[in-house]
Amino acid sequence: MRVWIDITAPAHVLVFRPLIRLLRERGDEVEVTSRDYAQTVQLLELHGIEADVLGRHGGRSRFGKARSLTSRLRALRGWARGRQFDAALAHGSHELTMTARRLGIPSATTFDYEFAWLQHQLGCRAATRVVVPEAIPPERLERYGVGPEKLRRYPGLKEEYYLADFEPDPAALGQFELDPARTLVVVRTPPDVSLYHRRSNELFPQVLDRLGRDESVHAIVIPRTSEQRAQVLDLGLPSLLVPERAVDGQSLVASADLVVSAGGTMNREAVALGVPVYTTFGGRLGGVDEMLIREGRLTPLTDPARLDLRKREGNGERVRRDPASLLDLLLERCLGGL
After folding, report:
1. pLDDT band at 197 (very low <50, low <70, confident <90, very high)
2. Cα separation of 275 and 300, whole Å?
3. What are the residues whose beta carbons fall under 8 Å from the beta carbon of 49, sequence distance 6 or more?
4. pTM: predicted TM-score of the whole model, two decimal places
5. pLDDT at residue 194, as a whole number
6. What would the pLDDT profile of 285-324 be if each residue is shown by its tens digit?
7. CB distance 263 to 38 below 8 Å
8. How confident is the prediction for the chain on average, in pLDDT?
9. In the sheet where 240-241 sits, what is the strand order?
10. Positive or negative, the Cα torsion across 311, 317, 322, 325?
């Protein structure tokens, strides 16, 4: 079987790493395309995944996004035509499902945040199969043309699948000069390109200021873009540490006393690894976060002063799930039940 996978954001590298391995172990051919966005290409290199890089992120403006979409669709179509793929897989890449549909390739997409309206209107309607966590109510997906015949759902978090074989690398902390007596906090920036844009997450700069001035803390800030990295460094706050390149974020999370994230993936990675985690996410909560907050595994943060900055005692409970079951859901309809 020939499988095409499109990876358009850093988190997707981790999602597909075990799936690519499973496909190749059973003798399938896998080809990967990628988009030049944030640390995506660096993480592909870090995990030894070869990919053809086609297109870039379109930035914040609608015009930029539309121009980038049009250009990348053209590039993907030219790249995929004639390669005789049997299936195409993506995590939220509407560009893959749209291209695959035009070329007659069965496709499956997965995601765990249901309120990315435009992305899902395009991607879900074009896909053959849509695979999401059970925490997302099916009725929320009907607006995207996803009915029972197209939808498949899996238990738990996607992070519990792709981190199933993960063991932390102690060397991940080696690039930082850390005082073991201090509380180690791992911080993930918001998806906004600019941390201080008028529409950005207003709470996040307050979190940076709170952590960066606390002498009992080391806060490793993992930015999404070089612009964000420069902005954090410009603050000159002594307790903030910023890596120069893409890092083994999962090992950093596993070593942390707590995590504060303005996004989604690192929140759920912390939950899956049993690490206390606060969310400063400023958008509409999706079904997965709603579930985690109800269960007390994710804490919404509204005031940085309420951060419980203390050393973690012992290891939290981990949940490991078989990534082969997730792969089966993605391929089931694409390949007629195989």
Report:
1. very low
2. 15
3. 7, 13, 16, 17, 20, 32
4. 0.90
5. 44
6. 999 999 999 999 999 999 999 999 999 988 888 999 999 9
7. no
8. 91
9. 240-241, 217-222, 183-188, 258-261, 277-279, 299-300
10. negative
**Bridging pattern class, strands 183-188 and 107-110:** unpaired
Show Cβ contacts of residue 97 under 8 Å, excluding neighbours closer than 6 positions.
88, 90, 107, 109, 122, 123, 124, 126, 127
Cβ count within 10 A of residue 56? 13
The string of DSSP letters for 267-335 reads: HHHHHHTT--EEE---S---HHHHHHHHTTSSEE-S-GGG-------S--------HHHHHHHHHHTTT
Residue with the bigger pLDDT between 93 and 199: it is: 93
Other beta carbons within 10 angstroms of residue 135's beta carbon come to 20
| pLDDT, tens digit, 9 for 90 and up, residues 234-245 | 999 999 999 988
Closest CA to 275 of 208, 185, 209: 185
Closest-CA residue to 124 (of 101, 154, 94, 156) = 94
Of 10-24, 36-50, 64-78, 227-241, the range with the lowest mean pLDDT is 64-78
| Contact by Cβ (8 Å): 126, 104 | no
Alpha-helical runs (H) found in 104-157: 117-126
Strand partners of residue 30: 3
CA gap 159, 165 in Å, rounded: 11
